[in-house]
Design a protein that fits this description.
Helix content is 38%, strand content 25%. It is an alpha/beta fold. Strands 3-2-1-4-5-7-6 form a 7-stranded mixed beta sheet, with helices on both faces. β1, α3 and β2 form a beta-alpha-beta unit. The longest helix is centred in the first third of the chain and has 14 residues.
Length: 182
């Protein structure tokens, strides 16, 4: 089977990370967990907090339907520029909107609700990100937090607030926390 353009871009990013030119993206079991969540829930509106170079946006995008809308937020201008080019080259089916800026300032300005939120940014801000997006979630919305073990206040909130059912899936550094809005 011939790899898709998206798969080729993903492999290139993985190679760059292996050579130490980029931070390691959400690969291996952590990436598989994210893909499984998308396949199970078939989200139409997705918010990604922390784009970096676009790896997870492409990984999610190749699983999303052509009528889906993925909004991804990246704070760093240079990373956003690289991500924009990677996403363009990947030719993934959904509409992808990359917003450059601080997610803490951008999230309150976003309109509509989200079926899926993927958080992979500043670990110390995970809880703030979630609380800002909470009013844009509906019953059944899924929040996936990468490296969540490094965000103990976030974990305490999703596990004990009574607003979510949440499970930790060990995978790589810090694992993945998958929470469903009640």
């Amino acid at each position: 089977m011939v790899p898709s353009k998206a798969e080729k871009v993903l492999r290139k990013i993985e190679d760059e990370a292996r050579m130490g030119r980029l931070p390691h993206p959400i690969v291996g079991n952590r990436g598989k967990i994210l893909v499984e969540v998308i396949r199970e829930n078939k989200p139409r509106r997705v918010l990604e907090i922390g784009t970096l170079v676009g790896y997870s946006a492409i990984l999610m995008g190749k699983e999303l339907s052509s009528d889906a809308h993925l909004i991804t937020v990246e704070k760093d201008d240079n990373s956003a520029k690289i991500a924009r080019e990677n996403i363009r080259k990947a030719e993934i089916p959904p509409t992808v909107e990359l917003i450059v800026g601080d997610a803490l300032e951008i999230i309150p300005k976003l309109e509509g609700t989200f079926d899926l939120v993927f958080i992979d940014a500043e670990k110390s801000e995970y809880l703030k990100y979630l609380q800002l997006v909470e009013n844009k979630l509906h019953k059944g919305s899924v929040v996936v937090a990468d490296n969540a073990e490094n965000a103990p206040d976030y974990l305490d909130y999703v596990r004990c607030s009574g607003k979510y059912t949440s499970k930790h899936i060990p995978a790589g550094a810090g694992g993945v926390e998958v929470s469903v809005k009640l």
